[in-house]
């Protein structure tokens, strides 16, 4: 609980010009705020309502319904029409994204500053790297909270996530709960959307990781440079108060290095990097090699598959060393980390079968290519790739993904991902536009039928890769979310194959 006056005092003067306060504001200043709300529908008595500008509406326009639900006051964009003085406390603000983040951090008393925080950004590898960091840190007896695409969890608690990076109020509430539950460390995925919308403002990071930048989200960002600038914000002094860990193998990573003072680079092969690997041997059961770090060189072994996962584990070890974790202990933990749900996850059935099936979350051109390349050495027969592209998301990546699937797989099955409000057939056409006429993909709009067709038609020794949805246990058709899980679908098809 905190008084409205105290919360407003945390805001920089340029955001909450006191000169605009009227008698309604002054009379609400001593009221205790018991919660924060950004949705008028879920606003409770005692809350402070913050009206967020969105793509469809300005939440500020709903201040009356929030006040009716018991909100003590509403903070809204300056353009929002306000009530007559004396009727309700509605205070105009300059930048609601910033206001919301600053207020949330203050309300929860800056939890990130009571923990050692690691932020991970980049197009691909955030979920995998944050899981690795959580695992290494917990193995080294450091109680660690993890916030990301899959869930928010800390010792004794786990909840499903709705976004890769929560909105400011949820974020600060979760960090506060994690810290109170004993987490000394926190690791989180930070999306470019979150940085552009300032959801993470008020958080301070001891370590920030940059994995890579390749095409995605061009529905939201103007171009790749704009996307990069959003990611680069994490490495500015506003957020980073420690060491940057940056991928030297990525061209945008090399650009970022020029801008940061305290940086360790990592590379899967370049000995100029601070952390790098050599003598790598890839096998179906994982990878092994030598790990070179600022704390010495050690042999390592990991059950993870693919060169990109070596990059992820380098980033994770770098984060650990930056926070003074023991290298030997981390290397021991690496050998036991089995992977992340829905990332290169093998679908197994009993009795085992003569084909392999993998479910992976590749939903960008780069990750699709990496996944197919990583699997190739282990394919005895044909490599069959089942995939689609999400609706209401970057359309320009669709033909690129089509071209990549056709180049790197032996057979392609184009199907739906989450069509959302787009016409599923049109999404398929966008993907097919990138596939050369000489290739004859199977086109099946129903993902269930597509997975079944791929698995039932596979020949002994074939390798079926089902990409795009990974851990997701739903499919979004229109505005409806139905239960759908690639792993369950593959299991069922494998059983059917056994009996046919
Ligand atoms: C593009 C984007 O980020 N959109 C976000 C935006 O939605 P919007 O603009 O449609 O919102 P809106 O409907 O206009 O409403 C604006 C505000 O008014 C409020 N409102 C609205 C109506 C009402 O009656 N009362 C009321 O209070 C709403 O609660 C909201 O705060 O504001 C909403 C609330 O703040 C967000 O939920 C929504 O995220 C949507 C769901 C989303 O899917 N975002 C994705 C793209 C995203 O952020 N993804 C990244 C990961 C990307 C990666 O892979 O790297 C993430 O971090 O998850
Ligand atoms: N370092 C990496 N570089 C390139 N591709 C990767 C890397 N790590 C994982 N991948 C591929 O990208 C897919 C998504 O990985 P992951 O979930 O770790 O990424 P993410 O950055 O969290 O994605 P999102 O933005 O959706 O949260 C994986 O299934 C794999 O195919
Ligand atoms: N975080 C990603 C997830 C994409 C997952 C894919 N299955 C899709 O629906 O496009 C995004 O919001 O673009
Ligand atoms: Mg993720």
TrEMBL record:
UniProt-annotated binding residues for meso-2,6-diaminopimelate: 393, 417-420, 468, 472
Short name of any one Pfam family annotated for the protein: Mur_ligase_C
BP GO annotations: cell division; cell wall organization; peptidoglycan biosynthetic process; regulation of cell shape
N6-carboxylysine modification, residue list: 231
Gene Ontology cellular component terms for the protein in this record: cytoplasm
Reactions accelerated catalytically: UDP-N-acetyl-alpha-D-muramoyl-L-alanyl-D-glutamate + meso-2,6-diaminopimelate + ATP = UDP-N-acetyl-alpha-D-muramoyl-L-alanyl-gamma-D-glutamyl-meso-2,6-diaminopimelate + ADP + phosphate + H(+)
EC number(s) from the headed UniProt entry: 6.3.2.13
Pathway connected to this protein: Cell wall biogenesis; peptidoglycan biosynthesis
Residues in Mur ligase C-terminal domain copies: 342-470
Domain annotation Mur ligase N-terminal catalytic: ranges: 32-108
Post-translational modification: Carboxylation is probably crucial for Mg(2+) binding and, consequently, for the gamma-phosphate positioning of ATP.
Residue span of motif Meso-diaminopimelate recognition motif: 417-420
Molecular function as annotated in GO: ATP binding; magnesium ion binding; UDP-N-acetylmuramoylalanyl-D-glutamate-2,6-diaminopimelate ligase activity
UniProt KW keywords: ATP-binding, Cell cycle, Cell division, Cell shape, Cell wall biogenesis/degradation, Cytoplasm, Ligase, Magnesium, Nucleotide-binding, Peptidoglycan synthesis
Domain of life the protein comes from: Bacteria
Record Gene3D superfamilies: Mur ligase, C-terminal domain, Mur-like, catalytic domain, MurE/MurF, N-terminal domain
InterPro entries recorded: Mur-like_cat_sf (IPR036565), Mur_ligase_C (IPR004101), Mur_ligase_C_dom_sf (IPR036615), Mur_ligase_cen (IPR013221), Mur_ligase_N (IPR000713), MurE/MurF_N (IPR035911), UDP-N-AcMur-Glu-dNH2Pim_ligase (IPR005761)
Subcellular location(s) per record: Cytoplasm
UniProt cofactor(s): Mg(2+)
Entry binding sites for ATP: 122-128
Domain annotation Mur ligase central: ranges: 120-319
Binding site for UDP-N-acetyl-alpha-D-muramoyl-L-alanyl-D-glutamate: 40, 164-165, 191, 197, 199
Family: Belongs to the MurCDEF family. MurE subfamily.
Function: Catalyzes the addition of meso-diaminopimelic acid to the nucleotide precursor UDP-N-acetylmuramoyl-L-alanyl-D-glutamate (UMAG) in the biosynthesis of bacterial cell-wall peptidoglycan.
The name this protein goes by in its record: UDP-N-acetylmuramoyl-L-alanyl-D-glutamate--2,6-diaminopimelate ligase
Native source species: Acaryochloris thomasi RCC1774
Gene name, Swiss-Prot/TrEMBL: murE_1
């Amino acid at each position: 609980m905190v008084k409205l006056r105290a919360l407003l005092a945390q805001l920089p003067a340029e955001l909450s010009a006191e000169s605009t306060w009227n008698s309604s504001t002054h009379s609400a200043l001593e009221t205790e705020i018991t919660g924060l709300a950004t949705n008028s529908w879920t606003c409770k008595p005692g809350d402070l309502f913050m009206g967020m500008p969105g793509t469809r509406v300005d939440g500020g326009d709903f201040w009356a319904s929030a006040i009716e639900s018991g909100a003590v006051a509403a903070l809204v964009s300056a353009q929002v029409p306000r009530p007559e003085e004396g009727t309700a406390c509605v205070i105009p603000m300059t930048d609601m994204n910033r206001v919301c983040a600053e207020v949330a951090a203050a309300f929860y008393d800056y939890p990130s500053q009571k923990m050692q925080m690691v932020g991970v950004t980049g197009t691909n590898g955030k979920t995998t790297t944050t899981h690795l960091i959580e695992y290494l840190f917990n193995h080294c007896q450091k109680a660690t909270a993890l916030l990301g695409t899959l869930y928010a969890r800390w010792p004794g608690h786990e909840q499903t996530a709705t976004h890769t990076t929560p909105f400011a109020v949820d974020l600060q509430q979760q960090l506060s709960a994690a810290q109170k539950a004993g987490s000394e460390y926190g690791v989180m995925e930070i999306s470019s959307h979150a940085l552009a919308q300032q959801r993470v403002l008020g958080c301070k990071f001891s370590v920030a990781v940059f994995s890579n930048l390749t095409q995605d989200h061009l529905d939201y960002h103007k171009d790749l440079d704009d996307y990069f600038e959003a990611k680069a914000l994490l490495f500015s002094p506003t957020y980073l108060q420690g060491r940057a860990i940056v991928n030297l193998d990525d061209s945008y990573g090399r650009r970022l290095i020029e801008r940061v003072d305290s940086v360790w680079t990592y590379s899967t092969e370049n000995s100029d990097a601070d952390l790098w690997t050599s003598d790598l041997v890839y096998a179906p059961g994982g990878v092994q090699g030598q790990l070179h770090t600022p704390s010495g060189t050690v042999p390592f072994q990991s059950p993870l598959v693919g060169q990109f996962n070596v990059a992820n584990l380098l980033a994770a070890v770098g984060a650990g060393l930056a926070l003074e974790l023991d290298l030997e202990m981390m290397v021991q933990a690496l050998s036991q980390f089995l992977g992340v749900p829905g990332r290169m996850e093998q679908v197994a059935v009993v009795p085992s079968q003569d084909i392999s099936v993998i479910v992976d979350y590749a939903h960008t051109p780069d990750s699709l290519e990496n996944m197919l390349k990583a699997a190739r050495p282990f394919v005895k027969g044909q490599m069959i790739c089942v995939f689609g592209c999400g609706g209401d998301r970057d359309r320009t990546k669709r033909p690129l993904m089509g071209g990549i699937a056709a180049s790197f797989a032996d057979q392609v099955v184009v199907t739906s991902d989450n069509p959302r409000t787009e016409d599923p057939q049109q999404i398929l056409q966008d993907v097919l536009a990138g596939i050369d006429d000489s290739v004859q993909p199977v086109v099946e709009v129903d993902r269930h039928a597509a997975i079944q067709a791929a698995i039932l038609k596979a020949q002994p020794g074939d390798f079926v890769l089902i990409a795009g949805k990974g851990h997701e246990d739903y499919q979004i058709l229109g505005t409806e979310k139905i239960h759908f899980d690639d792993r369950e679908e593959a299991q069922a098809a494998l059983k059917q194959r056994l009996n046919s």
